[in-house]
User: Fold this.
Amino acid sequence: MRRSIATVSLSGTLEEKLRAAADAGFDGVEIFENDLIASPLRPRRVRDLAGSLGLGIDLYQPFRDFEGVDEARLERNLRRAEAKFALMVELGADTILVCSNAAPDAVDDDARSAAQLRRLAETAERFGVRVAYEALAWGGAVNRYAHSWRIVEMADHPSLGVCLDSFHILSRDDDPAGIRDIPGEKIFFLQLADAPRMAMDVLQWSRHYRCFPGQGGFDLTGFTDHVLAAGYTGPLSLEVFNDVFRASDARRTAADAMRSLTLLEDSLGRAPEGPRPTVELRRLPAPTRPSGYAFVEVAAEVESARRVRTILSALGFAHTHDHRSKPVQLWRHGDARLLLNSTDPRLGHTWDGPASVTALGVAVPDPEGAVDRAGRLLAPALPRRRDPAESDLHAVAAPDGTAVFFCAEGEGSPDWTADFSTPVGRDRVEGVAAGPVTIDHVGLFQPFDHFDEASLFYRSLFGLTPDENVEMAAPDGLVRSRALAGRDGGPRVVLNVSVLSRGARADAEGGAQHIALSCDDVFAAAEAMRAAGVDPLPIPDNYYDDLACRTDLRPDTRERMRENGVLYDRDDDGEFWHFYTATVDGRLFFEVVQRSGGYDGYGAANSAVRMAAQRAEAAR
Amino acid sequence: MRRSIATVSLSGTLEEKLRAAADAGFDGVEIFENDLIASPLRPRRVRDLAGSLGLGIDLYQPFRDFEGVDEARLERNLRRAEAKFALMVELGADTILVCSNAAPDAVDDDARSAAQLRRLAETAERFGVRVAYEALAWGGAVNRYAHSWRIVEMADHPSLGVCLDSFHILSRDDDPAGIRDIPGEKIFFLQLADAPRMAMDVLQWSRHYRCFPGQGGFDLTGFTDHVLAAGYTGPLSLEVFNDVFRASDARRTAADAMRSLTLLEDSLGRAPEGPRPTVELRRLPAPTRPSGYAFVEVAAEVESARRVRTILSALGFAHTHDHRSKPVQLWRHGDARLLLNSTDPRLGHTWDGPASVTALGVAVPDPEGAVDRAGRLLAPALPRRRDPAESDLHAVAAPDGTAVFFCAEGEGSPDWTADFSTPVGRDRVEGVAAGPVTIDHVGLFQPFDHFDEASLFYRSLFGLTPDENVEMAAPDGLVRSRALAGRDGGPRVVLNVSVLSRGARADAEGGAQHIALSCDDVFAAAEAMRAAGVDPLPIPDNYYDDLACRTDLRPDTRERMRENGVLYDRDDDGEFWHFYTATVDGRLFFEVVQRSGGYDGYGAANSAVRMAAQRAEAAR
Assistant:
């Protein structure tokens, strides 16, 4: 199917928007009128530029408050429309979006609106233009797609059809199944936007918080499937008003948009009824479901690496092997494997930033397939580590710059562990409770502009499912958090971002990162760590007093928690116990968690206490 | 009256919040439970610290979902409450806020809720604690203050009263006049918050967008007057949940909060019925209404100053005098006076930043009174320019750092113009249409954290009235704009801020500034400027094509506009014509406007076109 994007979804000048859309591989654009009006390029120049970039101009939009008006107004509106149709001929755009009248004085009279739209269509026909009529969710008289279709049917003109916009339909919880009853050739245009579920005025929601399909809470696959079932063969076009995208790098946003559409088109091909005969749906290689983290790599400068090693040892990790050719250590504990690197793997020189998570190794059944899929999803490939001494691992860059490696599960090939061929120690530290330790999740602070992009990145590459956003109050402002996890286990990742783009937290380089390890006895782990001379992050006594008020935890349990800095959460399915280590370089800390029952969260209720404790720690 | 602030209104740790509140002169605080739980200070230490800072702990808050529950739950809630009352004794807090039950399973049964709250009050009494029951706007059964009062009346216990929160009442458009019928001694606490008018879910609105009285759209004076009329004598306490304040410097926020309460208290004293006999209301010196700008000062480095002079000359300004002792030039045109300074007045050395507005001279009838008022409103006084050769002007720093000078109107004293005693030129440039030019408004980009503070600064010092916020789409993101103007003329100021705190616009140093001059023939002004060799900011032809579609402007008028880069706006009251100059140093530009009829806006509809044109200009 043809793929388009509205210029309003991207930042910059009209020319910059067109170039970004072309670079990301779009076939066409919707030109938002304000972008043209503010451009020094005359319409014919825009047409030429778009043509030279391989872009069609699929829609000119929007034309507002046309129908449901009195006669004098109709004549004025028709004159205005005629001028716009002439402009569209120059522009080479053959479809205009006409939004249902949202003015307070719009007349609710279907026959009148149909007659007026028919006049508009007759005028449009003379210019070779088609009119796509769309029900705005906040339209005065017409605000449901079924209503817009009734009026179009009544007007009965070949140059008049409907435009369907997923936001206007799904934001109102309208049932999209009725779209199947609209003849496909009368659906002139399809605009796609997702959005997080928000309790707010629909106009504000629409104009500020739309996002690309797969980034929000709407079922865009189901929606679009109805439209294809109706016989629609036009473009899949993204019309996304989003405050962050408006202010972000247009090329990155366009690539993010294309990733979204690629995933959507693939999911349509997998719909139960299979691909539509009328359209060709491009498919991706099947998603390869990761079973977990093969490793997590941490880079640190010399003194910080020493602090990390002290913590890891106290947590029961053992330094078992060294890399055969690089200053990278393999640390193991149960199934958890961490690489400790004191060289910047991207730059080849000694790491001089704060201790950081630099790479995630994800264990997948089919690394080649995963790489192929990632490439088609526009994940930026990283240079391969190809020298003969090393395994041939593929990696891509996540939106925050973290390298994501595709590793074979179990004994599969390529076997990255073969590079760590120099044994240096015992398999485990004596006297430390080991237990079956795994990497529970990795928490990564994201650059403000790329939070939704990061969510879609992990979702599209690995089939992880995002939770709802959670907001947490840090002493220096709100932090938004979104966890992603596989449906049947596999790696979990928690993305955090400053709600206001500001201060240290606004910058990925400055945001906190953590590695959470799961075990089946959080107290034993904490006590072993303390016995090894490493204290947990101190949690205020006031926290435990409050816990006494609101839970039935036994006093001796609370006392043991207090001694070990253990925090507690529960939900209907189970309980969660967790403690934190100190933070290295103000950036990287470790967490140890114990899940019981079906608890599936991350202890977000305790985050404010944790962040305040970290601030107190930093001030010491 | 006693003045308090909730710790949740400020950023930082509990200790930092207490210190900030004390520094701003508050008498007490409401301690938000989460702030205590996350604090390493035990309750008794908090009490001691607050006491040493001269702060009382006026409220402990909140206690949630207590009433309207089944018996088993009630017993658990009472145990929880008892633990909190014991904590309050340690803390030295004698009033607890109990919010109406917002849980979905809250039982709507007044008799039950009254009986349960009575049990709570009986328990509280044993600890010497009072219970203030508040109707949350989103309470399940109880969400109106009148309802909370009915239940309190029914419960009939001396340790139970109501807490009134302006947000919960005014956000629902509830009529506050009924408060007068509540006995004053049963109003245990008063929480004040303003908020901008927003169409959104009331809970989200409440938790993210509250602001200090005078910064939003609610009538806090009228509201509080009802509460005083009821006989309330407790604290005026600010409970403001605001995402920006949470992330801003706590001391500045606390000073902003105190300015807000000071203004509110003064306005209460001016209410028609006069001050209440039961409370003492502190008064401010009467506001002194400025008649306009005495001057605007621009600082620029040498080459930029040359460009500014070229523009000013072309606009008909004449360099009439030099300062007697400093490298500052006085430029005049009609009533408009600009000072051009190539020395940083604050630093005393040559200005090396981009050309900037550094000072506003505001003409007031009573400079001494204005200075006194500004001081009591915590406006930071700037060092006076006191050397014998100069007039004795007082100045304060606006939140963005701009110096605001209090000048005498007309021939009043001190006469700052006496310093400009060195005549250097003619009073006006020959051959240039002069017309009655005045300074229409000054537009200043604000630091992200201080937008609401700046609005309250100009409002409180000069009695300016803020317009509603307007949002404008720049090529690199949305910009929010708020204009302030006197009711009967006087200076206008337009404050702009990036909607997302990011990029150059997030930083006041990088944000655009402009000086708008009004005249009665914008075309003559533009043509004279062009004749003098200075081009206006070029406006795209596409803009004029669109104007042809949507207005009845005559073709020759449109052509003359196009030639001169003149933009157009209109409203029900009149028309607005305006053009822009080029931008100096990417920061400072001039605008020339012509208002006709009763048009009272600023051409915001054209801002997106202007900002795109400025971006194109910057790219050349």
About this structure: The two ends of chain A are 59 Å apart (CA to CA).
